[in-house]
Fold this sequence. Notes:
Blueprint: E1 9-16, E2 23-27, E3 38-39, E4 42-44, H1 51-63, E5 66-79, E6 84-96, E7 107-110, H2 123-133
Parallel strand pairs: 1-6
Antiparallel strand pairs: 1-4, 2-3, 2-7, 5-6
Pfam family, one: NUDIX
GO molecular function: 8-oxo-7,8-dihydrodeoxyguanosine triphosphate pyrophosphatase activity; 8-oxo-7,8-dihydroguanosine triphosphate pyrophosphatase activity; 8-oxo-dGDP phosphatase activity; 8-oxo-GDP phosphatase activity; metal ion binding
EC number: 3.6.1.55
Amino acid sequence: MAAEKTKPVDVAVGILMQPNGDVLLGQRPPGKPYPGYWEFPGGKVEVEESILEALKREFMEELGIEVLSAQPWCCVEHVYPHAHVRLHFYISREWRGEPQSLEGQAFAWQGSLGVEPLLPATIPLIEWLDRLRYPSA
């Protein structure tokens, strides 16, 4: 069955934002679709799990940090060749711990985003995010 005909998979995506506006991006590891592409961290929402619960779980599993608070920002659907996803973006400015690479992925704090390639679903959001991060620019 083609991805566009399937029910979208809900994915919790977190944007960790430092006081200066820098955000954390992770690089997809080998063995996953789009290996080497950069994205905001997150993962699939499990059955009986809220978006925020999934976000907190994924950040603990992937980065070893505890998200203390996060606010919903936007929701975007994207159809990839391998999956139809509904991405629920949350912005967190409060967390405990320093991000660690628990799944062998590279990650980087970015002001103006300088890493490439970006995951296709992420690209349209960068301009919106920049307006939020740098309102006077």
